[in-house]
Specification:
alpha+beta, Amidase signature (AS) enzymes, eleven-stranded mixed sheet, two-stranded antiparallel sheet, 19 strands, 31% helix, 17% strand
Length: 548
């Protein structure tokens, strides 16, 4: 549904008087965080409109090489102007007010197409926002673009019939991970501040690892899945993709909430802190006990570079005060073989999503989708396999896999309790993210997707630089925890991030002219006189969803 919020405000002439000693460091767009941007907003040195213009310029300049964006929001500047005026008249809604966000193009938006990167859904505009999109919109976020993904989020290479192949900004011969690789590549290349992904297997964490980013797959039930093009109601979840742990915490604060349209979110009631920002503790690794999962390290020559980086990072964690204990998971191969339930739930969930689009939906069933041929050949096998299963939710093998998931949960909880671990750690991918055209191999997302427990990836470092990858290829480390232990994972990851500072921007996509604003005054030092002329215009926002 659409709602028009009339904002009465107008043009203002701001006269700023800056004391000589009040000037602070230069604001730089590259790698800018929410906190840094808000300081520039508060000082009057930057507006949301200017910020959006800078990011749109980066997209226009660089995305032909990267191919991460499917749709640029034509109303982004209008929305930014409206939020600037709202800031002047009534103040900011919160820390995300006027902050540019990029959405994976399987998140429903009432004012932009949601395509799942498929020609079969080209120009499909859903009736309303996804729940998490509505929450971000209400917080004042500006959706400046929607990104490419592995079509229907069914794989790890980020290739689709609508968006083509997205490339890795650190090495244009490699993939950006997937399926949320468009968001990963775009956030790494500084096309926006924050991004969303969805994670059925490892689709938030894989792009985070491959693009030197922070990616959180939360506990199933912490974030609503309503309005996200689905694969599996057992395994699907939304998650933030950002450049820093602090920005992940801010984004999570805005996205959480009970949603009657997703009953799993009832389990989050009583498990959500007042703010995840409160858990940003630079000393959290002091006294922490971490289990290093030996089973998730590769043993072949192709794994050597990742192993070397991760082992060095584990030593750094010890120097930061953590106790690091090597451990193996009992019966891991047996517990994880034939564990996924996606083939059994894909048809049911996707058909329900198509029905939610109403009678004018461009495609109405998975069977119709397959017959249309309007999809990338890389997902044909998974579509046909799901369609071929009759009565999939009553299939004995499906029921067996659900039981196996419960056994896997018990095993991991018992292990963590036995050793009193605060978290488990391991490389997210045992080898470097693969070159374009190769299968995405050796990813370690299964602990989180196989249980529904949270996993948080942060930058661990890079491979050796090369001509193709002048910064090196990013390598990520994953923290895994108990259900609803996001606050603990955020604390540990923040402490590790602050102690190592491993994130680097890709040198292939450098800063552009105009991305530095000199002499940003400290907030509170600006004496401003506003001369305001009244005008009125509409700011489109989605009405909060009603219980169904």
């Amino acid at each position: 549904m659409k709602r028009t919020a009339m904002v009465v405000a107008g043009q203002a002439i701001m006269l700023g008087l800056f004391p000589v000693g009040a000037l602070a460091a230069t604001f730089r767009l590259e790698e800018a965080t929410v906190s840094e941007i808000n300081k520039a907003f508060d000082s009057g040195a930057l507006t949301s409109k200017q910020l959006v213009e800078l990011y749109l310029n980066r997209i226009d300049t660089y995305d032909d090489s990267l191919n991460s964006i499917i749709t640029v929001n034509p109303d982004a500047l209008e929305l930014a102007r409206a939020l600037d005026l709202e800031r002047q008249t009534t103040g900011p809604r919160g820390p995300l007010h006027g902050i540019p966000v990029i959405l994976k193009d399987n998140f429903d938006t009432f004012d932009l197409p949601t395509t799942a990167a498929s020609l079969s859904l080209k120009n499909s505009i859903p009736p309303d926002d996804a729940f998490t999109v509505a929450r971000l919109r209400e917080a004042g976020a500006i959706f400046i673009a929607k990104t490419n993904l592995t079509e229907y989020a069914s794989g790890g290479n980020t290739i689709s019939s609508l968006g083509g192949q997205t490339l890795n900004p650190y090495d244009l011969g490699r993939t950006p991970g997937g399926s949320s690789g468009g968001t990963g590549a775009a956030i790494a290349a500084n096309f926006a501040v924050l991004g969303t992904g969805s994670d059925t297997g490892q689709s938030v964490r894989s792009p985070a690892s491959a693009n030197s980013l922070v990616g959180l797959r939360p506990t199933i039930g912490l974030l609503s899945r309503d309005g996200i093009v689905p694969i599996s109601f057992t395994q699907d979840t939304a998650g933030p993709i950002t450049r820093t742990v602090a920005d992940t915490a801010l984004m999570l604060d805005a996205m959480v909430g009970y949603d009657p349209a997703d009953p799993a979110t009832a389990t989050s009631i009583g498990n959500v802190p007042e703010s995840y920002i409160d858990f940003l503790d630079a000393d959290a690794l002091k006294g922490a006990k971490l289990g290093v999962v030996l089973d998730l390290f590769g043993q072949e020559p192709i794994h050597a570079e990742v192993n070397s980086v991760i082992n060095a990072e584990l030593e750094k964690m010890e120097k930061l005060g953590a106790t690091v204990v090597p451990v193996s998971i009992p019966n891991l191969t047996e517990l994880t073989t034939n564990l996924s339930v996606t083939s059994y739930e894909f048809k049911e969930t996707l058909n329900a999503y198509f029905a939610s689009l109403g009678p004018d939906a461009p495609v109405k069933t998975m069977e119709e989708l397959i017959a249309s041929g309007l999809y990338d050949p890389s997902i044909k096998a998974s579509l046909e396999a799901a369609q071929a299963i009759e009565s999939p939710l009553q299939d004995p093998e499906y029921l067996r896999r659900l039981q196996q998931r419960e056994a896997f949960k018990e095993t991991l909880l018992d292990l963590m309790d036995e050793y009193q671990f605060d978290a488990l750690v391991y490389p997210h991918q045992q080898r470097l993210v693969v070159p374009v055209g190769e299968p995405q191999a050796d990813r370690n997302g299964i602990l989180a997707w196989g249980t529904g427990f949270p996993g948080l990836v942060v930058p661990a470092g890079f491979s050796a630089p090369s001509d193709a990858a002048p910064t090196g290829v990013p390598i990520g480390i994953e923290f895994f925890g108990r259900p609803f232990s996001e606050s603990t994972l955020i604390s540990l990851a923040y402490s590790y991030e602050q102690g190592t500072q491993n994130r680097r921007s890709p040198t292939l996509f450098p800063a552009l002219a105009g991305e530095e604003i000199e002499s940003v005054p400290e907030p509170g030092m600006v004496i401003a006189l506003g001369i305001t002329g009244l005008s009125a215009f509409g700011l489109k926002r989605k009405k909060a969803q009603s219980p169904t």
